[in-house]
Protein backbone atom coordinates (compact mmCIF):
# COMPACT_ATOMS: atom_id res chain seq x y z
CA UNK A 1 0.00 0.00 0.00
CA UNK A 2 1.50 3.30 -1.06
CA UNK A 3 0.62 6.94 -0.57
CA UNK A 4 0.17 6.94 3.23
CA UNK A 5 1.32 9.95 5.24
CA UNK A 6 4.52 9.27 7.04
CA UNK A 7 2.83 9.37 10.42
CA UNK A 8 0.20 6.83 9.29
CA UNK A 9 2.50 4.30 7.71
CA UNK A 10 3.21 2.41 10.90
CA UNK A 11 -0.45 2.30 11.87
CA UNK A 12 -2.16 0.93 8.73
CA UNK A 13 -1.93 -2.79 7.92
CA UNK A 14 -3.06 -4.34 4.61
CA UNK A 15 -3.61 -8.12 4.47
CA UNK A 16 -4.13 -10.09 1.22
CA UNK A 17 -7.01 -12.59 1.55
CA UNK A 18 -6.98 -14.39 -1.84
CA UNK A 19 -5.91 -18.04 -2.01
CA UNK A 20 -5.86 -20.95 -4.47
CA UNK A 21 -4.51 -24.50 -4.14
CA UNK A 22 -5.69 -26.34 -7.26
CA UNK A 23 -4.82 -25.76 -10.89
CA UNK A 24 -6.73 -22.70 -12.17
CA UNK A 25 -7.26 -18.98 -11.39
CA UNK A 26 -8.95 -16.99 -8.58
CA UNK A 27 -9.62 -13.33 -7.72
CA UNK A 28 -7.35 -11.88 -5.08
CA UNK A 29 -8.77 -10.05 -1.99
CA UNK A 30 -7.59 -7.84 0.86
CA UNK A 31 -8.47 -6.32 4.22
CA UNK A 32 -7.25 -3.02 5.76
CA UNK A 33 -6.73 -2.41 9.47
CA UNK A 34 -6.58 1.40 9.75
CA UNK A 35 -5.15 1.30 13.27
CA UNK A 36 -6.93 4.51 14.36
CA UNK A 37 -6.16 6.43 11.16
CA UNK A 38 -9.13 8.25 9.64
CA UNK A 39 -9.71 6.44 6.31
CA UNK A 40 -11.67 9.46 5.07
CA UNK A 41 -8.36 11.21 4.64
CA UNK A 42 -7.58 8.88 1.70
CA UNK A 43 -8.99 7.96 -1.69
CA UNK A 44 -8.20 4.23 -2.22
CA UNK A 45 -7.34 2.89 -5.63
CA UNK A 46 -7.30 -0.94 -5.78
CA UNK A 47 -5.06 -2.85 -8.19
CA UNK A 48 -5.48 -6.55 -7.36
CA UNK A 49 -3.86 -9.28 -9.40
CA UNK A 50 -5.30 -12.67 -10.44
CA UNK A 51 -4.06 -15.70 -8.55
CA UNK A 52 -3.12 -18.67 -10.81
CA UNK A 53 -1.86 -22.20 -10.19
CA UNK A 54 -0.42 -23.89 -13.29
CA UNK A 55 -0.19 -27.69 -13.56
CA UNK A 56 3.07 -29.38 -12.87
CA UNK A 57 4.60 -31.21 -15.86
CA UNK A 58 2.64 -34.44 -16.45
CA UNK A 59 4.61 -37.62 -15.93
CA UNK A 60 4.49 -40.34 -18.59
CA UNK A 61 2.91 -43.51 -17.19
CA UNK A 62 3.54 -46.23 -19.79
CA UNK A 63 2.09 -49.75 -19.80
CA UNK A 64 3.04 -52.38 -22.41
CA UNK A 65 1.10 -55.64 -22.14
CA UNK A 66 3.02 -58.67 -23.32
CA UNK A 67 1.74 -61.06 -25.99
CA UNK A 68 0.91 -64.52 -24.67
CA UNK A 69 -0.29 -67.89 -25.90
CA UNK A 70 -1.72 -71.12 -24.58
CA UNK A 71 -2.95 -74.48 -25.81
CA UNK A 72 -6.73 -74.80 -25.84
CA UNK A 73 -7.87 -75.98 -22.39
CA UNK A 74 -11.60 -75.31 -22.33
CA UNK A 75 -11.28 -72.16 -20.22
CA UNK A 76 -11.67 -68.55 -21.30
CA UNK A 77 -8.57 -66.43 -21.00
CA UNK A 78 -5.06 -67.04 -19.78
CA UNK A 79 -3.91 -67.49 -16.23
CA UNK A 80 -1.67 -64.48 -15.78
CA UNK A 81 1.13 -64.13 -13.29
CA UNK A 82 3.47 -61.37 -12.27
CA UNK A 83 5.25 -60.06 -15.35
CA UNK A 84 2.34 -59.93 -17.80
CA UNK A 85 3.16 -56.28 -18.52
CA UNK A 86 6.01 -53.78 -18.24
CA UNK A 87 5.13 -50.55 -16.43
CA UNK A 88 7.19 -47.38 -16.10
CA UNK A 89 6.65 -43.84 -14.85
CA UNK A 90 8.83 -41.00 -16.15
CA UNK A 91 11.14 -43.62 -17.63
CA UNK A 92 11.61 -45.53 -14.37
CA UNK A 93 10.49 -49.17 -14.35
CA UNK A 94 7.91 -50.06 -11.72
CA UNK A 95 7.30 -53.32 -9.92
CA UNK A 96 3.90 -54.29 -8.56
CA UNK A 97 3.35 -54.28 -4.83
CA UNK A 98 0.40 -56.67 -5.04
CA UNK A 99 -1.11 -59.17 -7.44
CA UNK A 100 -4.40 -61.07 -7.74
CA UNK A 101 -5.70 -63.09 -10.65
CA UNK A 102 -8.07 -65.69 -11.99
CA UNK A 103 -8.42 -67.13 -15.48
CA UNK A 104 -8.57 -64.30 -17.98
CA UNK A 105 -8.31 -61.43 -15.49
CA UNK A 106 -5.69 -60.12 -13.08
CA UNK A 107 -4.88 -56.97 -11.15
CA UNK A 108 -1.53 -55.43 -10.18
CA UNK A 109 -1.07 -52.73 -7.52
CA UNK A 110 1.59 -50.02 -7.94
CA UNK A 111 2.79 -47.17 -5.71
CA UNK A 112 4.48 -44.11 -7.24
CA UNK A 113 6.98 -41.69 -5.78
CA UNK A 114 5.03 -39.05 -3.89
CA UNK A 115 2.45 -41.52 -2.61
CA UNK A 116 0.11 -41.84 -5.59
CA UNK A 117 -1.04 -45.40 -6.25
CA UNK A 118 -3.02 -47.18 -8.92
CA UNK A 119 -4.29 -50.62 -9.97
CA UNK A 120 -3.60 -52.09 -13.40
CA UNK A 121 -6.23 -54.57 -14.62
CA UNK A 122 -5.40 -56.96 -17.49
CA UNK A 123 -7.96 -59.24 -19.11
CA UNK A 124 -8.73 -61.25 -22.24
CA UNK A 125 -11.60 -63.44 -23.38
CA UNK A 126 -9.81 -66.01 -25.54
CA UNK A 127 -11.62 -69.36 -25.36
CA UNK A 128 -11.57 -71.11 -28.72
CA UNK A 129 -8.60 -71.40 -31.05
CA UNK A 130 -7.73 -68.00 -32.53
CA UNK A 131 -6.25 -64.63 -31.56
CA UNK A 132 -7.74 -62.17 -29.08
CA UNK A 133 -6.75 -58.78 -27.65
CA UNK A 134 -5.30 -58.57 -24.16
CA UNK A 135 -6.54 -55.25 -22.80
CA UNK A 136 -5.42 -53.14 -19.86
CA UNK A 137 -6.94 -50.35 -17.77
CA UNK A 138 -5.70 -48.19 -14.90
CA UNK A 139 -7.63 -46.85 -11.93
CA UNK A 140 -5.99 -44.58 -9.34
CA UNK A 141 -6.58 -45.57 -5.74
CA UNK A 142 -4.88 -42.38 -4.51
CA UNK A 143 -3.73 -39.26 -6.32
CA UNK A 144 -5.08 -37.71 -9.49
CA UNK A 145 -4.81 -39.50 -12.83
CA UNK A 146 -4.84 -36.13 -14.62
CA UNK A 147 -1.29 -35.56 -13.39
CA UNK A 148 -0.09 -38.33 -15.68
CA UNK A 149 0.06 -38.99 -19.40
CA UNK A 150 -1.16 -42.59 -19.45
CA UNK A 151 -0.30 -44.81 -22.41
CA UNK A 152 -1.42 -48.47 -22.62
CA UNK A 153 -0.33 -50.81 -25.43
CA UNK A 154 -2.54 -53.88 -25.60
CA UNK A 155 -1.18 -57.36 -26.25
CA UNK A 156 -2.42 -60.36 -28.20
CA UNK A 157 -3.54 -63.70 -26.80
CA UNK A 158 -3.15 -66.70 -29.14
CA UNK A 159 -5.06 -69.90 -28.37
CA UNK A 160 -3.42 -72.87 -30.09
CA UNK A 161 -5.12 -76.17 -30.99
CA UNK A 162 -4.76 -79.02 -28.53
CA UNK A 163 -2.84 -81.74 -30.34
CA UNK A 164 -3.96 -85.37 -30.21
CA UNK A 165 -2.30 -88.37 -31.80
CA UNK A 166 -4.55 -91.35 -32.52
CA UNK A 167 -3.15 -94.83 -33.18
CA UNK A 168 -5.92 -96.56 -35.11
CA UNK A 169 -4.33 -99.97 -34.58
CA UNK A 170 -4.16 -100.85 -38.27
CA UNK A 171 -1.25 -101.34 -40.59
CA UNK A 172 -0.27 -104.58 -42.29
CA UNK A 173 -1.96 -106.49 -45.08
CA UNK A 174 -4.05 -109.52 -45.89
CA UNK A 175 -5.13 -111.45 -48.96
CA UNK A 176 -8.62 -110.97 -50.34
CA UNK A 177 -10.93 -113.51 -48.74
CA UNK A 178 -14.41 -112.25 -49.53
CA UNK A 179 -14.88 -110.93 -45.98
CA UNK A 180 -13.29 -108.33 -43.72
CA UNK A 181 -9.52 -108.58 -43.97
CA UNK A 182 -8.23 -109.19 -40.50
CA UNK A 183 -9.36 -108.23 -37.03
CA UNK A 184 -9.66 -104.59 -35.92
CA UNK A 185 -6.81 -103.46 -33.71
CA UNK A 186 -7.02 -101.52 -30.45
CA UNK A 187 -7.44 -97.75 -30.83
CA UNK A 188 -5.43 -95.52 -28.49
CA UNK A 189 -4.76 -91.80 -28.27
CA UNK A 190 -2.50 -89.36 -26.44
CA UNK A 191 -1.96 -85.60 -26.11
CA UNK A 192 0.90 -84.14 -28.13
CA UNK A 193 1.12 -80.65 -26.59
CA UNK A 194 -0.17 -78.60 -23.69
CA UNK A 195 0.21 -79.40 -20.00
CA UNK A 196 -0.50 -83.12 -20.50
CA UNK A 197 1.66 -83.77 -23.56
CA UNK A 198 2.45 -87.49 -23.82
CA UNK A 199 -0.40 -88.49 -21.52
CA UNK A 200 -2.90 -91.08 -22.77
CA UNK A 201 -6.49 -90.00 -23.26
CA UNK A 202 -9.14 -91.57 -21.06
CA UNK A 203 -11.04 -94.20 -23.02
CA UNK A 204 -14.72 -94.62 -22.29
CA UNK A 205 -14.85 -98.03 -23.95
CA UNK A 206 -16.59 -98.76 -27.21
CA UNK A 207 -18.05 -101.49 -29.38
CA UNK A 208 -16.22 -104.33 -31.09
CA UNK A 209 -17.87 -106.04 -34.05
CA UNK A 210 -16.56 -108.55 -36.57
CA UNK A 211 -15.22 -105.97 -38.98
CA UNK A 212 -14.98 -102.81 -36.90
CA UNK A 213 -14.19 -101.28 -33.54
CA UNK A 214 -15.41 -98.03 -32.01
CA UNK A 215 -13.52 -96.29 -29.20
CA UNK A 216 -14.74 -93.26 -27.25
CA UNK A 217 -12.50 -90.77 -25.46
CA UNK A 218 -13.07 -88.05 -22.86
CA UNK A 219 -10.67 -85.10 -22.86
CA UNK A 220 -9.50 -83.02 -19.91
CA UNK A 221 -11.31 -80.13 -21.57
CA UNK A 222 -14.57 -82.07 -20.91
CA UNK A 223 -15.06 -82.54 -24.66
CA UNK A 224 -15.47 -86.02 -26.09
CA UNK A 225 -15.13 -87.84 -29.39
CA UNK A 226 -15.27 -91.32 -30.87
CA UNK A 227 -13.15 -93.10 -33.47
CA UNK A 228 -14.41 -95.97 -35.61
CA UNK A 229 -12.03 -98.29 -37.43
CA UNK A 230 -13.54 -100.45 -40.19
CA UNK A 231 -11.55 -103.32 -41.70
CA UNK A 232 -11.74 -103.34 -45.52
CA UNK A 233 -12.85 -106.19 -47.78
CA UNK A 234 -11.90 -105.20 -51.31
CA UNK A 235 -8.43 -105.21 -52.83
CA UNK A 236 -6.44 -101.99 -52.37
CA UNK A 237 -4.95 -99.80 -49.65
CA UNK A 238 -7.66 -98.42 -47.44
CA UNK A 239 -7.98 -95.79 -44.71
CA UNK A 240 -9.44 -97.48 -41.65
CA UNK A 241 -10.93 -94.45 -39.90
CA UNK A 242 -12.50 -91.37 -41.43
CA UNK A 243 -11.63 -89.31 -38.35
CA UNK A 244 -12.92 -88.24 -34.97
CA UNK A 245 -16.60 -87.61 -34.41
CA UNK A 246 -17.10 -85.13 -31.58
CA UNK A 247 -20.03 -85.77 -29.28
CA UNK A 248 -19.30 -82.52 -27.43
CA UNK A 249 -17.01 -79.59 -28.04
CA UNK A 250 -15.69 -77.94 -31.17
CA UNK A 251 -13.47 -80.02 -33.45
CA UNK A 252 -11.67 -76.86 -34.66
CA UNK A 253 -10.06 -76.54 -31.21
CA UNK A 254 -8.06 -79.71 -31.85
CA UNK A 255 -5.34 -80.85 -34.20
CA UNK A 256 -5.65 -84.62 -34.61
CA UNK A 257 -3.13 -86.80 -36.39
CA UNK A 258 -3.53 -90.49 -37.18
CA UNK A 259 -1.06 -93.35 -37.37
CA UNK A 260 -1.49 -96.99 -38.39
CA UNK A 261 -4.61 -95.88 -40.21
CA UNK A 262 -4.23 -97.92 -43.39
CA UNK A 263 -4.64 -101.57 -44.30
CA UNK A 264 -3.80 -103.24 -47.61
CA UNK A 265 -5.86 -106.03 -49.11
CA UNK A 266 -3.84 -107.94 -51.68
CA UNK A 267 -5.29 -109.73 -54.67
CA UNK A 268 -5.97 -113.45 -54.32
CA UNK A 269 -3.55 -115.21 -56.62
CA UNK A 270 -4.80 -118.00 -58.86
CA UNK A 271 -2.52 -120.31 -60.83
CA UNK A 272 -3.63 -122.15 -63.95
CA UNK A 273 -1.25 -124.99 -64.81
CA UNK A 274 -1.39 -127.11 -67.97
CA UNK A 275 0.26 -130.53 -68.21
CA UNK A 276 1.29 -131.88 -71.62
CA UNK A 277 3.08 -135.02 -72.71
CA UNK A 278 4.02 -137.25 -75.64
CA UNK A 279 1.30 -139.23 -77.40
CA UNK A 280 1.14 -141.75 -80.24
CA UNK A 281 -0.70 -140.64 -83.33
CA UNK A 282 -4.36 -141.61 -83.12
CA UNK A 283 -6.00 -139.38 -85.67
CA UNK A 284 -7.57 -137.32 -82.87
CA UNK A 285 -6.35 -134.16 -81.12
CA UNK A 286 -4.95 -134.41 -77.62
CA UNK A 287 -6.12 -132.34 -74.62
CA UNK A 288 -3.78 -131.14 -71.85
CA UNK A 289 -4.54 -131.84 -68.24
CA UNK A 290 -5.23 -128.68 -66.23
CA UNK A 291 -5.28 -127.66 -62.58
CA UNK A 292 -6.49 -124.44 -60.96
CA UNK A 293 -5.26 -123.50 -57.47
CA UNK A 294 -5.21 -120.57 -55.08
CA UNK A 295 -1.60 -119.54 -54.47
CA UNK A 296 -1.75 -117.24 -51.41
CA UNK A 297 -3.84 -116.35 -48.43
CA UNK A 298 -5.72 -118.71 -46.18
CA UNK A 299 -6.82 -120.78 -49.20
CA UNK A 300 -3.33 -121.34 -50.59
CA UNK A 301 -3.11 -124.85 -52.14
CA UNK A 302 -6.89 -125.24 -52.41
CA UNK A 303 -8.79 -125.35 -55.67
CA UNK A 304 -12.03 -123.55 -56.38
CA UNK A 305 -15.10 -125.52 -57.30
CA UNK A 306 -14.72 -126.54 -60.96
CA UNK A 307 -17.20 -127.74 -63.57
CA UNK A 308 -15.63 -129.35 -66.66
CA UNK A 309 -17.13 -129.33 -70.14
CA UNK A 310 -15.68 -130.80 -73.35
CA UNK A 311 -16.72 -129.32 -76.69
CA UNK A 312 -17.20 -131.21 -79.90
CA UNK A 313 -13.89 -129.88 -81.16
CA UNK A 314 -12.17 -131.21 -78.02
CA UNK A 315 -11.90 -127.73 -76.46
CA UNK A 316 -11.92 -128.09 -72.67
CA UNK A 317 -13.84 -125.47 -70.68
CA UNK A 318 -13.54 -125.10 -66.90
CA UNK A 319 -16.04 -123.01 -64.97
CA UNK A 320 -14.48 -122.12 -61.61
CA UNK A 321 -16.55 -120.82 -58.70
CA UNK A 322 -14.48 -118.16 -56.95
CA UNK A 323 -15.32 -115.95 -53.97
CA UNK A 324 -18.23 -113.56 -53.44
CA UNK A 325 -20.19 -114.95 -56.39
CA UNK A 326 -17.40 -114.38 -58.91
CA UNK A 327 -16.66 -117.02 -61.53
CA UNK A 328 -13.74 -117.70 -63.84
CA UNK A 329 -13.92 -119.48 -67.18
CA UNK A 330 -10.78 -121.26 -68.34
CA UNK A 331 -10.58 -122.41 -71.95
CA UNK A 332 -7.96 -124.99 -72.99
CA UNK A 333 -7.61 -125.61 -76.73
CA UNK A 334 -6.73 -129.09 -78.06
CA UNK A 335 -3.59 -129.96 -79.95
CA UNK A 336 -3.54 -130.59 -83.64
CA UNK A 337 -4.19 -134.04 -85.15
CA UNK A 338 -1.02 -134.60 -87.15
CA UNK A 339 2.31 -135.66 -85.68
CA UNK A 340 4.24 -132.74 -84.34
CA UNK A 341 4.84 -130.50 -81.32
CA UNK A 342 2.08 -128.21 -80.11
CA UNK A 343 2.37 -125.38 -77.56
CA UNK A 344 -0.84 -125.23 -75.60
CA UNK A 345 -1.94 -122.15 -73.67
CA UNK A 346 -5.15 -121.53 -71.79
CA UNK A 347 -7.20 -118.37 -71.79
CA UNK A 348 -9.38 -117.16 -68.96
CA UNK A 349 -12.01 -114.54 -68.17
CA UNK A 350 -13.59 -113.50 -64.89
CA UNK A 351 -17.22 -112.65 -64.41
CA UNK A 352 -17.63 -110.38 -61.40
CA UNK A 353 -14.89 -108.17 -59.91
CA UNK A 354 -11.69 -109.13 -61.71
CA UNK A 355 -9.52 -106.81 -59.59
CA UNK A 356 -9.92 -109.19 -56.66
CA UNK A 357 -7.69 -111.76 -58.37
CA UNK A 358 -4.25 -112.01 -59.88
CA UNK A 359 -4.27 -114.90 -62.35
CA UNK A 360 -1.17 -116.51 -63.77
CA UNK A 361 -1.16 -119.26 -66.36
CA UNK A 362 1.57 -121.62 -67.53
CA UNK A 363 1.37 -123.42 -70.83
CA UNK A 364 2.57 -126.88 -71.84
CA UNK A 365 3.79 -128.85 -74.84
CA UNK A 366 1.97 -131.78 -76.44
CA UNK A 367 3.96 -133.98 -78.83
CA UNK A 368 2.23 -136.35 -81.19
CA UNK A 369 4.50 -138.98 -82.77
Question: What is the topology?
Answer:
Layout: E1 13-16, E2 24-27, E3 30-33, E4 50-53, E5 59-65, E6 68-71, E7 85-89, E8 92-94, E9 98-102, E10 105-111, E11 117-123, E12 130-142, E13 148-153, E14 155-160, E15 162-167, E16 173-175, E17 188-191, E18 202-208, E19 212-218, E20 224-230, E21 236-239, E22 245-248, E23 254-259, E24 262-266, E25 268-275, E26 277-279, E27 289-294, E28 305-310, E29 316-321, E30 327-332, E31 340-344, E32 347-351, E33 357-362, E34 364-368
Parallel strand pairs: 5-13, 6-14, 15-23, 16-24, 25-33, 26-34
Antiparallel strand pairs: 1-3, 2-4, 5-7, 7-8, 9-10, 10-11, 11-12, 12-14, 15-17, 18-19, 19-20, 20-22, 21-24, 25-27, 28-29, 29-30, 30-32, 31-34
Provide a descriptive summary of the structure in words.
The chain is mainly β. It has a six-stranded mixed β-sheet with strand order 6-14-12-11-10-9, with no helix packed on it. Strands 8-7-5-13 form a four-stranded mixed β-sheet, with no helix packed on it. It has a four-stranded antiparallel β-sheet with strand order 18-19-20-22, with no helix packed on it. Helices cover 0% and strands 51% of the residues.
Overall radius of gyration: 49 Å
Point out poorly predicted stretches: none
β-sheet strand percentage: over 45%
Task: Please give the order of strands in the largest beta sheet.
Answer: 6-14-12-11-10-9
